[in-house]
Design a protein that fits this description.
The complex is a heterodimer of chains A (63) and B (407). Chain A starts with 6 loop residues before the first helix and ends with a helix. Chain A is mainly alpha-helical and 63 residues long. In chain A, α1 packs antiparallel against α2. Chain A is built from 3 helices and no strands. In chain A, 16% of the residues are buried. Chain B is an alpha/beta fold. Helix content of chain B is 42%, strand content 26%. Chain B contains 10 helices and 16 strands. In chain B, strands 1-2-3-5-4 form a 5-stranded mixed beta barrel. The longest helix of chain B has 73 residues. The chains are: A mainly alpha (63), B alpha/beta (407). At the A-B interface, α1 and α2 of A face α9 of B.
Chain lengths: 63, 407
């Protein structure tokens, strides 16, 4: 995952993917890749909202 | 020179004269107060009433609230949300008192709160008018709302990095932090505190200094939150200060306020994004992030339902294709089958038995079918196979022919 990803770029990218899929601009061959990408973006938003990464980092640094 | 009299006799005479003139009469006066000293445990308050012409004080007299009227001071503070302190102009009902030792005093019986509130409001209106007039670029009045550079700044999609300006150990600090740290969605926040005593004349200046620190520091904040607790000793005057209001209006990071009063909004509130209480500021931030998460979830749902649609239609396409391939194969096989049947019929027609039954004969010598008549000699024993009969013969003569016999 890109480290400098922000909420707005994550959100915009996700929005773009959904729009492409809804307008049939995506080939079936690309689907798996898009699913991977979308899942990653969603996880990024969810984790960052709850600062999961930070907790993980903290847990690592405490060891 | 007449014989000098004792001081007490003169002072007693002054007292009697004053009593004769003022006894049993109360007066409403409007004046500025100064040198205010409150003794809340004794419930006394000493002050001076003054009147100025320009900057010069032309009249000055001592004033006092005793235990019986001290509640008026407290009520003043509750109603006007500002401390009863030097510099205020008040209208009050006084009685003229003279004491042999402490001299002349105006004993305050009652404060006119309507006047006090009106004065306060007039001061506020004057500050607001000045803000509009002197900061046309950063402050505008649109439909009764103050649109400032600050409260027009867009908020981050998600608010996580918060600079908190608050009084140390205050209710506001506690309420805000509690609400934001224990939010029910489990969102994480980074709060950096900028502590300041929000009390007294210098507080607006101190708040401004903290804002400067926030702006010049390395940390990048999504918002600045200014909160202060409720309680009866609240001092809202700093939040009506011209300089602070002006600074807030053009501050480059969105400011959320929770200054904690429900009756009227301070001027700083109007320049920023106001919320009624510190708790409500926290709720506002949490809700802001919640609506972002909802949008992500909505996109996620759209994404996966679209994936499902695509998969279904692809599966359908596959089945259709599979069916048409099956049909082609079946047709192909059927065609092949009918070809084979034709061949079988042909083969059957060409079999020796069917040939014999058509009147042809097979000639063998030494149980070999003769295909080369050259091998046949005179006296060779031949078998002529007809339908259902074999004729045993011996060759007596052999005659080759050139022209095809007419068969």
């Amino acid at each position: 995952m890109k480290t400098n990803l922000t909420y707005s770029t994550a959100f915009d990218t996700l929005e773009k993917i959904v729009a492409q899929m809804e307008s049939d601009e995506i080939q079936v061959d690309e689907l798996a890749e898009k699913v991977r990408q979308a899942k990653e973006l969603i996880a990024f938003c969810e984790n960052k909202l709850r600062m999961v990464e930070k907790e993980v980092e903290k847990a690592i640094s405490e060891k | 020179m007449p014989k000098p009299m004792r001081l007490s006799i003169l002072v007693n005479e002054i007292q009697e004269t004053l009593e004769n003139r003022f006894e049993g009469e109360d007066f409403w006066v409007t004046a500025e107060i100064t040198d205010v000293k409150k003794y809340s445990n004794k419930r006394w308050c000493f002050l001076k009433f003054i009147e100025k012409e320009g900057k010069a004080i032309i009249t000055e007299i001592k004033g006092v609230f005793w235990g019986g009227t001290y509640y008026q001071v407290e009520k003043f503070e509750q109603q006007t949300r500002q401390p009863f302190s030097s510099g205020l102009e008040i209208t009050c009902l006084v009685r003229v008192r003279f004491h042999q030792r402490y001299g002349l005093t105006l004993e305050v019986l009652e404060i006119d709160f309507t006047y006090a509130l009106g004065k306060l409001e007039m001061d506020r209106q004057a500050v607001l008018a000045r803000l509009l007039q002197e900061n046309t670029e950063s402050i505008q009045l649109i439909d009764g709302q103050y649109a400032t550079r600050n409260n027009s700044l867009p908020l981050s999609m998600v608010i996580q990095h918060v600079a908190l300006i608050t009084a140390p150990g205050s209710d506001g600090q506690r309420d805000f932090l509690q609400e934001i740290e224990k939010n029910r969605y489990g969102y994480g926040f980074l709060v950096s505190e900028y502590l300041v005593q929000i009390q007294g004349d210098r507080s607006s200046e101190l708040i401004m200094q903290q804002l400067q620190h926030i702006q010049s520091g390395k940390e990048k904040f999504d918002v600045v939150v200014i909160v202060r607790g409720g309680g009866s000793q609240t001092d809202f005057k700093p939040f009506d200060d011209y300089e602070l209001s002006k600074y807030v209006a053009s501050f480059p990071i969105p400011i959320l306020t929770g200054i904690g009063h429900d009756r009227n909004t301070s001027i700083v509130d109007m320049m920023a994004r106001p919320n009624k209480t510190p708790t409500k500021v926290a709720t506002y931030i949490v809700d802001h992030n919640f609506s972002f998460e909802q949008e992500v979830i909505a996109l996620k749902d759209r994404f996966f339902s679209r994936i499902q649609e695509i998969m279904q239609s692809e599966t359908q396409n596959f089945y259709t294709l599979k069916e048409s391939i099956a049909k082609i194969i079946i047709t192909y096989l059927q065609n092949r089958k009918s070809n084979i049947e034709a061949i079988e019929r042909l083969v059957k027609n060409l079999s020796p038995l069917s040939i014999l039954s058509k009147g042809f004969a097979i000639v063998t010598m030494d149980d070999q079918i003769i295909t080369d008549p050259g091998k046949i000699k005179k006296q060779s024993a031949l078998k002529t196979i007809l339908k259902s009969t074999i004729i045993h013969t011996t060759v007596t003569e052999k005659t080759p022919y050139e022209n095809q016999p007419d068969l």
